Amino acid sequence: MAGLGQIAPFILTYWQHFLALLLGYILAEVFRSRSSNKPRKIEAISTDKTGIVREADIQCEPPSASRPTASEKQPTIKTSDAATEEEHPSPEEDAFDLESGKHIPYSIERYGEDEMKKRSQEFYLEMNKRRSVRYFSNEPVPLEVIENIVRTAGTSPSGAHTEPWTYVVVADPEMKAQIRDLIEDEERVNYEKRMGQKWVDDLKPIGTTWKKPYMTTVPYLIIVFKQVYGLTDSGHRKTHYYHEISTSISVGMLLLAIHHAGLVTLTSTPMNAGPRLRVLLERPANEKVVLLLPVGYPAENALVPDFKRKPLDEVMVLK
């Protein structure tokens, strides 16, 4: 009793510390007990047949009350290629989110290497015959051909699949005459004032001037508009991503389709005439003129500049 009387003042003075130690011990025991009952995921290293070091998971079962015997099931290590791929999806599988939109299977006809080389060479030789032409025939061209050409341009890729282009096909002679007058009015000012002498001199080897007689000769004029933004059914603006690049790619496909059909064209930029063209053709404010292309057969006496194209080693770099 005498000893307890001596210890009691000490306990009464420091009882808070003893209580904190006791609570800490109890919490530590609870945490240790819970964590020991959870499956543990341990990263292990294995090597597959290719010699590539891979990570595999060791799935450990929670410990039971009794020690497992040798006959009981033991933790297994997944080291096979199939198991590893299941645990670690390939970059192709992990790179795309296919939940938001509808997707369908896709495949194309495959060719042997010899056939691929043959087809690519033949296509190059055909496209290498394409030239910008300023001398056209007034011979009619079936509208169905032009429709198929524009359909081909419409297969072009575009930012977020917004397809931000409009192809206005003009076949009416009176409308073509109005367009010619409008373009020549602006082009005369361009050549005489806006462009500067250097630009005019650079165009001399081509032989072009502000006069555009072919615009009333060809059976069709195609005016290409880019849609700077779209409009939803409710009239709200819809963003068109990369509308300039998307429309330019589409025009490239249009040029190939024109040549493939046995026709010719000229890529002309109606500088400073865009707003007036848009009003004349009754296009909405979200559309801007990019190019004007006369389309038809070449005239019998057609001439083109004697230009040579760059060789492959000047346009392609292989790394």
Principal-axis shape: elongated
Assembly state here?
A: single chain
Number of strands: 8
Output the structural class: alpha+beta
Keywords:
319 residues, 10 helices, elongated, alpha+beta, four-stranded antiparallel sheet
Task: Provide a descriptive summary of the structure in words.
The protein has helices at residues 2-36, 81-87, 91-94, 113-127, 143-153, 173-194, 197-202, 243-260, 274-280, 312-315; strands at residues 40-47, 53-60, 165-170, 220-227, 229-231, 237-239, 264-265, 287-296. It is α+β, with helices and mostly antiparallel strands. It has a four-stranded antiparallel β-sheet with strand order 3-4-8-7. It has a two-stranded antiparallel ribbon with strand order 1-2. Strands 5-6 form a two-stranded antiparallel sheet. α5 (143-153) crosses α8. It is elongated and about 125 Å long. Helix content is 40%, strand content 15%.
